[in-house]
Write a structure and sequence with these properties.
By secondary structure, this protein is mainly alpha-helical. It has 12 helices and no strands. α8 packs antiparallel against α10. This is Adenosylcobinamide-GDP ribazoletransferase.
């Protein structure tokens, strides 16, 4: 029952999918991040279904891409995009790390965040318009792996604040379990990419590794560590990078 409660908390926190509500105790939340990638599984499955629907009814590419770009926001409630936008605002301020951390907590949205969000959605819509239902399995792995890596990074990387989401996360989460489960998710995704894309799997793995290293470098240099908002930024960037690799790599290989 503890695992089921952790699963429900993961979905209620990181998605808008209706699930039974459980009490948010430390015991119930202990393994919630281990189930975080399953939210990506559901997101990927729904996107696969949309692409299949577009293929069957020959829906225009513009509508295909636009709906596909918005679908993850509808499923997650925009929680990760919110972190992405806050991070962009903080980075664009060119302020010291302490000031950037204050900007992350600011509820106001700056011009740079709006432009970044618009650009992100425009680019992702363009990439999705190039995908068909045959890319469904590879696409599912994008959403699983981005969340597995985000959870793993929160577990092992230094936090920017002594008190905050990351501190609370570390206190209630079994870090070893997050690392082990993240490794399992990553291995499954790699196997799927190998079976469906062959050499494309190496490009996806390389892109994911670059995203992790770039995330750590940016977070440590610009903020002194990672935060929940930065985790959202990382997730969004990783998803966009992997989708771009699947689209472009699929044309080249």
């Amino acid at each position: 029952m503890r695992l089921i409660r952790s699963l429900l908390i993961a979905f209620s926190t990181y998605s808008r999918i209706p699930v039974p509500q459980v009490e948010w105790t430390e015991e119930n939340r202990r393994y919630s991040m281990c189930f975080f990638p399953l939210v990506g599984l559901v997101t990927g499955l729904l996107l696969w279904g949309w692409l299949a629907l577009c293929d069957h009814f020959e829906i225009d590419l513009f509508l295909r891409g636009a709906v596909a770009a918005l679908l993850p926001l509808v499923i997650t409630g925009g929680i990760h995009m919110d972190g992405f936008m806050d991070t962009v605002d903080a980075l664009a301020s060119w302020q010291p790390a302490e000031k950037r951390l204050e900007i992350l907590k600011d509820s106001h949205t700056g011009a740079f965040a709006v432009m970044a969000c618009a650009g992100y959605l425009l680019l992702s819509a363009a990439l999705y318009s190039e995908l068909f239902a045959s890319a469904g399995p590879s696409l599912i792995c994008v959403f699983i792996l981005s969340r597995a890596l985000s959870a793993w990074a929160l577990a092992v990387m230094k936090g920017a604040r002594e008190q905050g989401m990351l501190d609370d996360f570390s206190r209630v989460t079994r870090i070893r379990m997050v690392s082990v489960s993240g490794g399992i998710y990553a291995l499954i995704c790699l196997c799927v990419w190998i079976l469906t894309g062959g050499w494309l799997a190496l490009l996806c793995a390389a892109a994911a590794a670059v995203c992790v290293l770039g995330y750590r470098r940016m977070a440590y240099r610009q903020f002194g560590g990672v935060t929940g908002d930065l985790a959202g930024w990382f997730l969004q960037v990783t998803e966009l990078a992997l989708i771009a690799v699947i689209v472009i790599g699929g044309r080249l290989l």
